[in-house]
Design brief:
By secondary structure, this protein is α/β, with parallel strands linked by helices. It is about 50% helix and about 20% strand. The protein contains 28 helices and 26 strands.
């Protein structure tokens, strides 16, 4: 019956480990302690067969706890299993140095725990049997001087039998390297018979190379008269297969004279395979098999040290996949994982022998490029990474495009530590993303200052959301036939701490990159709908309110669900809300956009294409979507009376828009001449400074009431 001690400061862990331990073998007794202090007190009067302990517990360090156990002669050989975590290699080494027998990685695999515990209990019991037999022999030697010779012969025979039962290879050689003894285990492994080897030199059986190495080691043992620290070696068996052994050599002493060397070798092949597997798991990504962040850090720090000694250079390429989130959202995580595996294989194929490819996050990869002689090599790698993407996705049917944004930092110019090189490569990568991705950028010195400015802007945006420092201004939209206000566009402003209004061009691009555009746009839609419902309750004529949607919001959120909820909350009729989408939204993901636009159209919401003519304009493409009107971008409107090309674009857009049943509105109208031209071309509506600048809701309300009074007086 085995007695097992479990030490863990977590009650849940103690209960779980105790249940598992009782399954190791029948009638197992389990004792649990909540900490090292209690365990040491219990150990004073008890002799467990196995100890399982957590390494990190309050009250005492794990290595100190193990060391105190080993200081007790009764507990010197008791197997101790320590529970550690993958991420802290340093703690695992400390545990082993303190005297831990084996390691388990948290969370503990039940089958692995039981298997290892059974093996350790078996070896411990064999060790106790050997010790007990040796003690028994010693007692027999002391019984009587008269039977000393017989006792010696008997003890030698028994000792040989004991050694032959051990699962360890044991042999003894004289000062010249000739065998004095070899146990059955070693003879069987080498394909020999014990009677064949005694008196013969090991060179006959192990070969000259191995025999010479052993001779050199034995000379050190003989000269020092002390055993050597155990070392690992590969020994080829009779089946011509090499296995790994832990070998110990000690002097064979007769009286005060060294007469030979005793060698014992324990097979640790399975343990080494498990350690290798665990080491691989701790340093590699399980999905792609690439190096992980921990291994990348280790290699970068080694490269920094190597370059410091040799004045070399290396580059760190940080890679982020553009459009990967849409792959997961549209096609599912199975396709996303397949894409990541293909990208990993593609990056591995372009890396050199001295380079390291790593996956360091969800869709983030890195390549450590070493042994650089010029910057052209770095640029070639950047180009190769970008060009590898089409091949990586060629075997997967995707409805969205996936490209790579790469940021590059170079040692020593851009940093002398892993953290600085990663930070600067990250800054360069976001610079690539800001330029529409699908390329690479080198880190430049002003990026750090730009990063601090972006951090300041991030803080301002969060505070503006928290303290309600956003405001909507409204720019009127006019019917060109009647001159009446028939709608408005809600335009966002952010109030600074000083009360100044900041235009969206200075903060919205950053909000789209850091994700704050989602709550900001939701606030804009809700506030515009609330104001529209309020005007309606005041008795003002019904008119539409235009709200701009960010491409990011349209890609990451169910816009129909959000709009339906806000309309229900505020009470604004759907036909009075006009959602303005840029062409980049419409052209991003045709199927998904078409689905959401149709859902919005079913709600009764109007859909406009804003800034029409500035993107990849194609009325034949837009006609497949439920669009109500086109807004001609102000860049074509402002100079149409002086620039024939702009005039032609405006005329063509109006005519083609009407042919498809769309309403057309011109933006940026500032002069009477432009108004007259638009009227002649039968443009439906217009907005711009000619009719009025963006203004608070109260001022627009005054203008509409004045229009109502004038209309009433005329009638």
């Amino acid at each position: 019956m085995a007695l097992i001690l479990i030490v863990d400061d977590q009650n849940t862990n103690r209960q779980i480990y105790a249940q598992i331990a009782r399954r190791i073998e029948a009638e197992t007794e389990v004792v649990t302690c909540p900490g090292p202090i209690e365990a040491l007190e219990w150990l004073k009067g008890n002799n467990p067969d196995l100890i399982l302990t957590d390494f990190s517990m309050p009250g005492m360090h794990g290595d100190d706890f193990i060391a105190q156990i080993r200081s007790d002669k009764r507990l010197t050989d008791v197997p101790i299993i320590v529970v550690t975590v993958f991420e802290d290699r340093r703690l695992r080494l400390r545990a082993l140095d303190a005297g831990a027998t084996d390691l388990l990685i948290s969370p503990v695999d039940h089958r692995e725990f039981i298997a290892r515990a059974r093996n350790l209990l078996k070896m411990y019991r064999q060790s106790k049997v050997l010790s007990n037999r040796a003690n028994s022999l010693l007692e027999s030697l002391k019984k009587s001087e008269s039977i000393l010779a017989w006792t010696q012969r008997e003890s030698e025979s028994r000792l040989v039998n004991v050694i032959n039962t051990l699962p360890v290879m044991v042999s003894a050689t004289d000062l010249d390297g000739c065998y004095l003894f070899m146990n059955v285990n070693q003879a069987n492994y080498l394909g020999l018979k014990v009677g064949q080897v005694v008196g013969r030199h090991r060179k006959e059986f192990l070969g000259a190379q191995v025999a010479d190495r052993y001779d050199s080691i034995d000379q050190l043992v003989i000269a020092s008269k002390n055993g050597l620290r155990s070392f690992e070696e590969e020994i080829r068996g009779a089946d011509d297969i090499k296995r790994i052994f832990l070998t110990t050599k000690s002097p064979l002493v007769e009286g005060d004279r060294v007469i030979g060397v005793v060698t014992s070798s324990q097979d640790i092949t399975d343990r080494k395979a498990a350690e290798t597997h665990l080491h691989h798991l701790a340093h590699h990504d399980t999905l792609t098999g690439l190096a992980n962040r921990a291994l990348l850090r280790d290699r970068v720090e080694r490269e920094i040290g190597r370059c410091r000694r040799g004045d070399g250079r290396f580059a760190l390429h940080l890679i982020d996949l553009d459009g990967f989130k849409q792959v997961n959202d549209v096609h599912g995580h199975g396709v996303g994982d397949e894409l990541l595996i293909n990208v990993g294989e593609g990056l591995r194929s372009i890396a050199g022998e001295d380079d390291l490819v790593a996956r360091i996050g969800g869709d983030e990869f890195a390549i450590l490029q070493g042994n650089l002689s010029n910057d052209h090599q770095i640029e070639q790698m950047g180009d190769a990474i970008v060009e590898a993407m089409p091949e990586a996705i060629s075997h997967i049917k995707l409805s969205t495009q996936v490209t790579a944004s790469v940021g590059i930092s170079v040692h020593p110019e851009d940093g002398n530590s892993y953290e600085s090189l990663m930070r600067n490569a990250d800054l360069a990568m976001y610079r690539t993303k800001a330029a529409s991705g699908n390329g690479f950028s080198f880190f430049v010195s002003n990026m750090d200052a730009r990063a601090r400015e972006e951090q300041r802007l991030d803080t301002s945006l969060r505070e503006a959301l928290k303290h309600d420092r956003f405001q909507l201004l409204y720019q009127r939209q006019v019917d060109l036939k009647t001159g009446q206000i028939i709608g408005c566009e809600a335009l966002l402003r952010m109030k600074s701490v000083d009360g100044d209004l900041i235009v969206p061009g200075k903060f919205l691009p950053r909000a789209e990159r850091n994700g704050l555009i989602m709550p900001i746009n939701e606030w804009v839609i809700r506030e515009a709908c609330r104001q529209g419902a309020k005007w309606r309750e005041m008795g003002l004529p019904e008119f539409t309110i235009g709200v701009n949607l960010s491409p990011v919001q349209f890609q990451r959120q169910s816009v129909p669900l959000l709009v339906a909820r806000i309309l229900a909350e505020t009470g604004l009729p759907p036909h009075l809300l006009d959602l303005e989408l840029t062409e980049s939204i419409v052209l991003h993901d045709r199927k998904q956009v078409a689905l959401q636009l149709n859902q919005l159209h079913d709600l009764g919401v109007k859909i406009s294409i804003d800034d029409f003519g500035t993107g990849c304009s194609s009325l034949s493409y837009v006609k497949h979507f439920p669009v109500d009107r086109l807004k001609i971008d102000q860049s074509f409107v402002r100079d149409l009376t002086e620039n024939p090309s702009d005039a032609a674009i405006v005329r063509a857009t109006i005519n083609l828009g009407h042919s498809l049943g769309f309403e057309v509105i011109a933006e940026g109208v500032e002069t009477e001449d432009i108004v007259q031209y638009l009227e002649l071309e039968h443009c439906d509506k217009a907005q711009g400074y000619y009719f009025g600048k963006p203004q608070p809701a109260e001022e627009l309300e005054v203008a509409i009431r004045s229009q109502m009074a004038l209309k009433s007086a005329c009638s």
